[in-house]
Write a structure and sequence with these properties.
This protein has 13 helices and nine strands. It has 394 residues and is of the alpha+beta class. It has a domain at 85-214 and 348-371: Nucleotidyltransferase, domain 5 (2-Layer Sandwich), CATH 3.30.420. The protein starts with a helix and ends in an 8-residue tail after the last helix.
């Protein structure tokens, strides 16, 4: 049966009944958030003290923590960008499909490296890793999408590490998405812990060579700064139950830094640098401690704030921070009205696994299995039925 649009229409109508009330409530909260943001902008010690109390009750609390700059800081890009080598890496994956005839997974990592303002074409490389047989059952459990994503993220960072070893002079290296590893944290704690240690080892090697590492988060959804404001508004009882305290619900970090009529960040400007408070903070300490800032890569009248995650060794070095800032603004301008780092866009194109490529790998694996007289499975009935053309009932 197709979608029952009459039911959907009725549900949409019910949603629309409260539209005006929701709009007024959101406008009130936005005004309150902007007011508190500026009022608390320089009260960094008070904010840190309140946050410390909240974290004592909820160590897994996730929000921004002020460092040294006022909350409402707006920093212009550097007037000049020093010579540097840029490395951008992105990855894609094929997840194992239990309904398919051949079980396999695949990670494809695309990387571009170029010397800034050299006039030379970027160097493009691809690394492809096939997961088959025992690789699909780490620790005797089936390989999940989360675990594949974890392997992909680590493969991206490892590629940055490998390429940056060849380079003399400043290196700016970035990937798409957060620096922090997320996948499979609750699915397989043992494997997750192993990957965290390997990830930290990669970051430490990058730090030892002074590589300016960053994670670029386009259209961020995490409201880290807004959560800090909510914590600042909490009283004693609310601090003890801060996970349930959301007086600014509906307001977002993107709106705060994105407001068209009264933008906090001019085009090309970055926000203050914040430290990330989260339950995984214990995994990233010292020079690896995770920070972030917002960056408006949009144009006048068309702001587009993105979140840029950086480790402490970048956050604490103004020269490195300025170089990263300038490089990202320049890279995004290349893409015109849809700003996004050009090299990351190219890396994504390089890494993307097309459906026909996946199909060809399936055929090659099947042929090799037949050649070695190995048992070959068949597609599930469900998978086979999905390929049937729709039938019309009489």
């Amino acid at each position: 049966m197709p979608i029952e649009y009459q039911q959907v229409h009725e549900q949409i109508r019910q949603v629309s009944l409260g539209a005006r009330e929701r709009k007024e409530r959101l406008a009130e909260r936005r005004a309150q958030a902007r007011e508190f943001f500026h009022a608390l902008s320089s009260k960094l010690d008070d904010l840190r003290s309140k946050l410390e109390l909240a974290v004592a009750h909820d160590p897994n609390l996730r929000c921004a923590e002020p460092v040294t700059e006022p909350l409402n800081a707006s920093n212009p890009p550097p007037t000049e960008i020093q010579p540097a080598t840029l490395i951008a890496v992105d990855g894609s994956q094929v997840n194992p499909d239990r309904h398919a005839a051949v079980q396999f997974g695949l990670i494809n990592v695309g990387a571009l490296m170029m010397r800034l303002n050299s006039g030379e074409a970027p160097k493009v490389t691809t690394d492809t890793h096939l997961m088959y047989g025992d690789d699909l059952f780490p620790n005797e459990t089936p390989l999940t999408e989360g675990l594949v994503a974890l392997r992909r993220d680590l493969a991206e960072r490892s590629k940055l590490d490998a390429l940056s070893r060849e380079v003399q002079g400043p290196v700016v290296a970035f990937t798409d998405g957060p620096i922090e590893l997320w996948g499979a944290q609750g699915e397989d704690p043992r494997t997750y812990a192993e990957f965290i240690e390997r990830h930290k080892a990669v970051l430490s090697r990058l730090q030892s060579r002074g590589v300016i590492a960053a994670g670029y988060v386009d259209k961020p959804s995490a409201n880290l700064v807004l959560r800090l404001l909510e914590i600042a508004l909490a009283d004693g009882d609310q601090v003890r139950n801060v996970r349930e305290f959301h007086p600014l619900r509906g307001v977002t970090d993107r709106w705060l830094f994105d407001a068209i009529h009264n933008p906090l960040l001019s085009p090309g400007h970055r926000s203050a640098v914040f430290r990330i408070q989260s339950g995984s903070r214990r995994n990233y300490q010292g020079d690896l401690e995770l920070h972030f800032f917002y960056l408006n890569v949009g144009t006048q009248g068309h702001p587009w704030p993105v979140r840029v995650e950086i480790p402490a060794w970048v956050a604490n070095d103004m020269g490195k921070l300025d170089l990263l800032h300038g490089v990202l603004v320049e890279q995004c301008r290349i893409m015109g009205s849809r700003p996004y780092p050009y090299l990351l866009h190219r890396a994504h194109e390089t890494a993307l696994v097309k459906p026909e490529e996946k199909q060809q790998i399936e055929q090659l694996l099947t042929m090799e299995s037949f050649r070695n007289e190995e048992e070959v499975d068949v597609m599930s009935n469900k998978g086979s039925a999905k390929g049937l053309k729709g039938r019309t009932r009489n």
